[in-house]
Amino acid sequence: MGLSEAEAEAAAQAPRLIAAVGDTGEEGLRLACVAGITAADAARRLAAVPADPEVVEALIDDPWSDIDGGDLIVGATDVPGGCVLTQPWGYALTLPAVTKALSAGTVCYSLFVNPKSGNQGQVTRDGVVVDSDTHPGGGDAGGHLSAEEILAVYLYQGQAVAYCCAGAGVRPEDARAIAGGPDVWLRL
Question: For the chain, what are the domain ranges?
Fold first, then answer.
């Protein structure tokens, strides 16, 4: 017995997605991949406004500076299948209030690349956190996972960012949404 059509498609998609996002999971990164919405939709759902360019520039120059409100600034980029929000210096994208707002009517897969304990993920569907403290790309193939999840663990071993993108159904064509300049910087 071989792979189902959906499984074969997932297996074919994985190498392309891994190559597209590359090695972008720098320590401290927070990421939220959201299916079926644009960066503008994400801004509306979060009641976000454009961030002050001078503050963004200061954060880029020194991400660990204690700039007032810096932890509320995120980047948002449209990608095929939805949008990707990134935050190299704060924690907002992994807060349940944020992922619940982003996931209304869809799915949001968020990630924190924790330098102390490894990759930490959270899956939120239609405003409800359905799985938390996951280990994207980390090899957890325990008995609690579905066959689809076990396949994803295998396909994205060591590739947390690509795993999250696939989990949400977004398909960045390159790493810009994660490691480059986003379409827009927002202040939550």
Answer: 5-64+73-187
